[in-house]
Amino acid sequence: MEIMSDGPVLVLSGDLDVRSTMRVRSAIQEHLASHPEVVIDLSGVDSVDVTALRVLAAATLQSVRDGHHLRLRHPSPAVTRLLHLSHLIRVVEVDRGVG
């Protein structure tokens, strides 16, 4: 898992799974401490598991409690499908548009 920062955007690439959840969680928390609005770009994510998606959902809920805003951008069809199957789509905000 590679995690890059571009202003308020965190760009994730590689496998988003149980092995990378601690690093992703820490990066999101640090980013939310610096930016009131954070976008997590998932366009480079090759695979994902439910554990990692739960980290994204928990970060979304925490950001709302803290008065911040977090959204996911450009998830692949497979990631979107898993969000729906796990019902986590109800928790996270997903921006499927370009930008």
TrEMBL record:
Transmembrane portions of the chain: none
Stated name of the protein: STAS domain-containing protein
Natural source organism: Nocardioides flavescens
Any Pfam family: STAS_2
SUPFAM superfamilies: SpoIIaa-like
Domain STAS: 1-99
